[in-house]
Every structure is written in C-alpha cells, then in structure tokens.
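Quick one, tokens below:
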C-alpha cells in the first residue's frame, strides 16, 4: 500500500470528531493507494481510529462492496460435519463421533464434532486434554477409504523442562496405534524444526520423547513458524513490486528463502 504525506490535523478538529461520534477518535487519516487484486490501484483515505481501521475509496468501490452475486443456499448449511464423516465411512467399529466439544468447552479452536478412537471414553479425552497445548487432543482428520489408515492432528504435549509425562496421553496414542492394526509403530510428524521444539520446553511445551512413547517414532519436518514465513513472503513482495531487477533476480529470490519454505511445506 503506497501512501501520500500524512494529512495535518489539529486538536480542534479531533475534538469536534470526538464530539460528533461520542468516544470515536480518528488517530490517523492519510491518503493512500491500495493495490486491489481485483481492480488494481485504488486511491482512497485510510482511517485508523480507537475503534477500527478502514479504507474509504475516493474512486472505484472495493470489490467486497461491488460483488452482488446471490446464492440460493444458506451458507451455514453448506457444510454438515456428520454428512462429511459418513462420506468417509465414519463412524465405524474403530472410530466414533463425540459431542464432547459441542459447546467448545473442551477446546475452543476445534470443531464441535470430533472423531476419536471407539475405545476412548469422553473422560479419557478430558484427561488427555490437560496435557496438550490449548487442549488440542489427537483427533481424526482423514481416513484412507480402503486400508483405513488415518491421519490424526493434535498440538504439542506439555512436557516442559522437567520432562513431565502423562499416562493417559501415552495410553491414548497407543490406542490410536492399535486402531490402525496394520502398523507396529505410530509415526508422529512434528511440523517444527527440532531446535524450536526443544526451545518450546522452556515455555511448558515440548515433544513426544522415545522414553515416554515406546511404540512411536518422531520426525521433525523443519517448517518454520508463521512469523518467519510472513517475513519471507514480505521479502518476496519487495523484490517483485514495484520493480523487478532482472540482473539480480535469482540471488534476490534466494535471499528470501521462500522456495525453501515451500519445499519444506510440501515434503
């Protein structure tokens, strides 16, 4: 977003604005050019207040306000989790649907309906949740239509510097392994770099150690966190906009490390 010189304002105009809008203060008010992916450059004014940040276009309205496409369906009913699980052949003799999170009481960042091993009770799930970051217990995300091998998602265990263990969590992962009868060991893919996982112990997190999880093997995927990814993408943007230096293109692209992150993300 390109910007023009910041517009001047005085205490009198700010006071008038606050009087007109109660406790609504405009803190920043400047002209900008917004590069809209649909309509191209749009000239307007950006306002940062004590309530919100918004752009008011002086020319073409932004796409979000132009789009008048109508749909004949209720958006809230497009996705039905029970129907989606049934499409995948769930529940079955090994996996069940639990409503333990129907009010998002167990985990506020998980769906209301979860698929878990049939042998694990809801009380088991509550005990496991106490040992997982943000209570994100291992739950089924995908099941193979033929051999029934599954992909299960979860957050890091709360091991900490002292190397804490949780028998309920260890038992639960072993139940998941036994549910996949064709495997002798549970394969755990940790998306973080190894050094990050070790460092997370200092803040109470960690990873599944061989000592605690005997029937599991752990692999680190070396994918950096969102802050590193965002900074890398920003560098990519800087080398392609507003100008591209053809003579230094390859070295500039290499310096962003973006392709390295993409390669790590897709294995």
């Amino acid at each position: 977003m390109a910007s023009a010189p910041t517009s001047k304002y005085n205490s009198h105009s700010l006071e008038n604005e606050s009087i007109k809008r109660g406790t609504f203060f405009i803190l920043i008010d400047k002209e900008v050019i917004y590069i809209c992916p649909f309509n191209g450059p749009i000239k307007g004014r950006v306002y940062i207040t004590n309530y919100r940040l918004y752009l008011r276009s002086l020319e073409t309205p932004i796409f979000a306000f132009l789009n008048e496409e109508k749909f004949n369906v209720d958006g809230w009913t497009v996705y039905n989790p029970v129907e989606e699980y049934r499409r995948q052949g769930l529940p079955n003799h090994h996996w069940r649907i639990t409503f333990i999170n129907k009010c998002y009481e167990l985990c506020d960042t998980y769906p209301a309906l979860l698929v878990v091993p049939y042998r694990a009770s809801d009380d088991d799930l509550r005990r496991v949740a106490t040992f997982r970051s943000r209570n994100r217990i291992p739950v089924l995300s995908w099941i193979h239509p033929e051999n029934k091998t599954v992909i299960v998602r979860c957050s890091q265990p709360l091991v900490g510097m002292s190397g804490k263990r949780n028998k309920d969590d260890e038992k639960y992962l072993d139940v998941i392994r036994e549910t996949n009868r064709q495997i002798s060991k549970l394969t755990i893919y940790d998306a973080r770099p190894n050094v990050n996982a070790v460092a997370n112990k200092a803040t109470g997190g960690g990873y599944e150690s061989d000592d605690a999880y005997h029937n599991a093997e752990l692999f680190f995927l070396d994918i950096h966190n969102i802050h590193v990814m965002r900074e890398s993408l920003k560098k990519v943007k800087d080398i392609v906009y507003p100008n591209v230096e053809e003579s230094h293109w390859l070295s500039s692209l290499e310096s962003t490390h973006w392709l390295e992150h993409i390669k790590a993300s897709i294995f």
